[in-house]
Design goal:
Strand content: 5-15%
Distance between the termini: 49 Å
Shape: globular
Radius of gyration: 22 Å
Strand order of the largest sheet: 1-2-3-5-4-6-7-10-11-12
Number of strands: 12
Low-confidence stretches: 1-20
Mean pLDDT: 93
Structural class: alpha/beta
Order of helices and strands: EEEEHHEHHHEHEHHHEEHHHHHHEHEHE
Number of helices: 17
Largest sheet: 10 strands, mixed
Helix content: 40-55%
Amino acid sequence: MRVLLAAALIGGALISPTPAAAVTIDWQPCRGDFECATLKVPAQRSKPKGAKFSLALIRHRSTGADPIGSLVFNPGGPGGAGRDSIAWAWEELPDEVKSRFDLVTWDPRGIGASKPNLSSCLSAPLKLPATGNVNWSKVAKTFVRDQGKANATCQKQRPKVVEQMSTNENVADLDAIRAALGEPKLTYWGMSYGTRIGYVYALTYPDRVRAIVLDGSIDPAATILGLAEGGAGPDQAFGAFTDAYPKARKQYNDLLTRLSKAPVTLPGKKIFDRWILRDVVFNADAQQAAYPGIAAFLNTAHAAVFDQDKAAQRRTAQTVSGIENFRLHNGNAGGAFAVTNCRDYSQRPTVDEALPAIRQQVSLGPNYGGILATEFALGCAGLNVTPDPVPLITGRGSNVPVLILGASRDGSTVNMWTARMSRAFPKSRTVTYAGGQHVTWGAAGSSCVNAVADAYVLTGSLPKADVGCPNAVVVE
């Protein structure tokens, strides 16, 4: 029914694949074993001699004597800062890859230590009723009002930055990084939102691709409303968590039933309500490494609410404080998230247009689906930006061979998006991990996933067929 749109855009054009200017990077020691640098890139790819962004780069040198080159990664978002993620990524990579590659990343334009940035911009929190049924129409309308104010303030404070952030610009920056590293072809690991950068790079610079790993894919045929399909992801991953910790499911259900009747006041006048409970569990369950912490929290919170355990109440109050702070300063849900998505996609759904998608996600993910779907579908409120749409692939797409990694119950980017990315790159191979882990190379602890990804990055060779990998969670 759909046709190939690999080189077509909605209201835009592909990035002109002009060679990046030859520059060198002045690396300096920073943060222990890491090295930091800055790289100046055009603020607008169409004006290479105009104003510049200063990108903050960081790398860890390879550990072996026979390096292949640089593995560049983006940690996701939009809004993820590479400098904040590289220590984790280096730790997760298998030793053989670390011995052959420098690991390199950057804070994308507008983010983190890159200048100028949107550091003062925040996203509006959803206002949700402490008890009773949720009127999603009312929630959505209130969010549009509040998000509209937050986005308008952000744009007023940083008007030029807002108009110069987009995935197409990030792709041009990535190619400038590749050139500055002296790499004739790019070896790239895109996580989550980073897969959008990766697939657009493959379409734009197909002859400059050595190896691209798309790990936890964004839908390459997405719209703003299409992003709302990811709302139910955390609910799907919750099943993978409770498979490993069956006691936690009952504790969660007990707490949800109790808190849905009335919030509980904890020491320091901290209010523990059903939304705090959901945030603790569903903001974390996409990462298997968080499973023991989620289980411990549920055990403590259950003792605090039902046993009136004083020590448990104090610890739960501390968790409530942490969630309150996270909501205020979550960069992944702040200005960069809204601005990038709203420049990448030209659609601007009204509340009435968004409500069917929100309600669908509530039915598929009753715990968290409505929250994320509302934020995704209506996050552009208040922004008056010129779209810079990414290319969409709605049929059989590019012949560039890439490696696609996904999970059957991915807690952030749902598995249907992995399937669409596979269709978009028919010469690719896909590795599907049986679990809820979001971003599986290294982090899933799967020798099956690692073996395929390692071999591809080291040799450039894909497996002969798609691969399925079993769950690797071991409960102690």
